[in-house]
Structures are given as structure tokens and as C-alpha cells.
Amino acid sequence: MRFKETNLEGGFEHPVVKTDDAIMSVASAMLNAKTSLLKKHGVSFQQYIILKTLHFAKGKPASIKSLTEEMFDKMSNTSRLVAKLEKKGFVERKVSSLDRRQVEIKINKAGEKVFTEAALELNEAILNAYQPLNKTELSTFLKILLKLKALKY
Fold first, then answer.
1. Which domain holds residue 10?
2. Same domain as 65, residue 106
3. 3-state secondary structure 37-98
4. What pTM does this model have?
5. What whole-number distance in Å separates Cα of residue 10 and Cα of residue 22?
6. Whether 59 and 106 share a structural domain
7. Is the domain of 73 the same as that of 125?
8. Residue 102 carries which DSSP code?
9. Which of 30, 51, 33 is nearest to 114 (CA)?
10. Which H/E stretch holds residue 105?
């Protein structure tokens, strides 16, 4: 028996551990699918989150710190991700006129275009993936996930 089969199907583990394994497995599969879809648009999932944050900032510049706060992975190297987006021509970075130690990052037209195209395709894929769940199931699922998110690990 393989490790995965033992974890997800074996009867010797506690139900909480089995549930946690299932959540991690599903989350990993979802992230892999999103990563594959975004790759067609020339951005990683983390770069997409930065573009999304800048898009919803509606023209206001963001700092590296504020972008890091929006990341799912707080350990990500936001400066490196912004540098890659700048190199691809999707964002513009400049030194703040108020504080030379601060850097202001804005999304540009090319970044808006790639974000919009990727977001439309990604949202369609997400809606299709959750199609089997009805509104009540989605609401219950969200409540459970938010309860789990509040736990301290």
C-alpha cells in the first residue's frame, strides 16, 4: 500500500488527521491547476496575487510591505516577485517622493491586460470546479473553512 492510500483510505488514523490530509491534498491540487492556468499568461500564482492587489488598489501605489500582507504565503520574497513583474513589463516601481527608503509599485496597462485576461479565465475555471456544490453547501463549507482558518497551529 502506498503512503497516499494509507493516509486517505487507511483506517488506523484519527479522523481529524485524515480530514487534514484531505484538505491539504485538495488545496495542493487546486493550486497546481491554478498555477498551470496562469502559466499560459506568463505569471506565477504569487505574481498573480500581486497583480490582483495592485489592480484593486485602483491606481494607488503599494509598498512591498502592503503587498506582502496580501500574499497567502507571508514568507514569499515579494521584492523578487515585483522585480520579475517589472522585468516582464507588468508593473512600474519608483522611489517615493515622500520617503526615499520607500518604493511605490503600480500596475501598468500591460499588467492590467494580463491580469484581466488571467482573472477571467481563472474565475471561469473556479466556477466550473465548484459547480457540483449548491449554495447551502458552499455556505456551510465557507463557514467551516473560516472556522479552521481562525485556529492556531
1. 1-39
2. yes
3. HHHCCCCCHHHHHHHHHHHHCCCCCECHHHHHHHCCCCCCCHHHHHHHHHHCCCEEEEECCC
4. 0.83
5. 12
6. yes
7. yes
8. -
9. 51
10. strand 103-107
Check whether residue 123 and residue 145 sit in a common domain.
Answer: yes
DSSP state of 107: E
Q: Return the residue matching grid coordinates 485556529.
A: 151
Residue pair 70/53 in contact (Cβ under 8 Å)? The answer is: yes
Per-block mean pLDDT, blocks of 10 residues, the chain (153 long): 52 79 92 96 96 94 91 83 96 84 92 98 96 97 93 79
Amino acid found at 68? T
Q: What angle do CA 119, 124, 129 make, to 5 degrees?
A: 125
Residue 58 exposure: Cα atoms within 13 Å on the Cβ side = 0
Instruction: Determine the Cα–Cα distance for residues 39 and 130; give it in Å rounded to an integer.
Output: 22
Q: Which of 80, 139, 72 is nearest to 105 (CA)?
A: 80
The set of cell numbers assigned to 22 is 484531505
Amino acid code (one letter) for 144: I
Q: Give the cell for residue 8.
A: 486517505
